[in-house]
Design goal:
This protein has 166 residues and is an alpha+beta fold. 17% of the residues lie in helices and 22% in strands. It has a 3-stranded antiparallel sheet. A two-stranded antiparallel ribbon has the order 1-2.
């Protein structure tokens, strides 16, 4: 079994003489049981290879943040975070009739630079549902014990955040 909690990988960089830290992997929390496999999908440059290197202990992780947490069936059936919705919508369905009828989520703007992530919710420059609060305050992870999300579209609820997807 492989367990990762709040995985973060940081690299020091310099930009015009200034020392900065970039975090291509930030807030990964996963459990992979015996006999299970993980398929990782994301945009170019989003940290997929860095995550793999950290899980194989080829690079040293630091710490991080979770955006959405639930059982995989729940995530695929009803993703709550706009970025999760976009990722799920980007997975092709092998049935052309079903694929044609699916709703695709269009992301706006370009990915922000990794050396200077935006304040607030890191996804707000690309989010089709971004609100003013997203620009200055990072949302907290909250949920009902079965599904948690860090998004201002889903105000905090009473209850607990799942410790990990079951």
């Amino acid at each position: 079994m492989l367990v990762a909690r709040g995985l973060r990988v940081e690299y020091p960089v310099s930009n015009r003489g200034r020392r900065l830290t970039i975090a291509p992997v930030d807030g990964v929390d996963l459990v992979i049981g015996q006999g299970e496999t993980l398929g990782l999908v994301g945009e170019s440059g989003c940290g997929k290879s860095t995550l793999g290197r950290a899980l194989l202990m080829l690079t040293r992780p630091a710490a991080g943040r979770i955006v959405e947490l639930a059982e995989r069936e729940r995530i695929f059936a009803a993703p709550r975070h706009p970025y999760t919705q976009a990722l799920v919508a980007a997975v092709p369905v092998p049935d052309p009739a079903v694929e044609r009828g699916r709703r695709h989520v269009a992301l706006t703007d370009d990915m922000p630079g990794i050396a200077a992530p935006p304040p607030g919710c890191r996804f707000h420059p690309r989010c089709p549902a971004a609100m003013e609060i997203c620009r200055f305050r990072a949302p907290a992870l909250s949920g009902d014990g079965r599904h948690a999300v860090a998004c201002h579209l889903h105000p905090p609820r009473e209850g607990k955040v799942p410790a990990r997807p079951p």
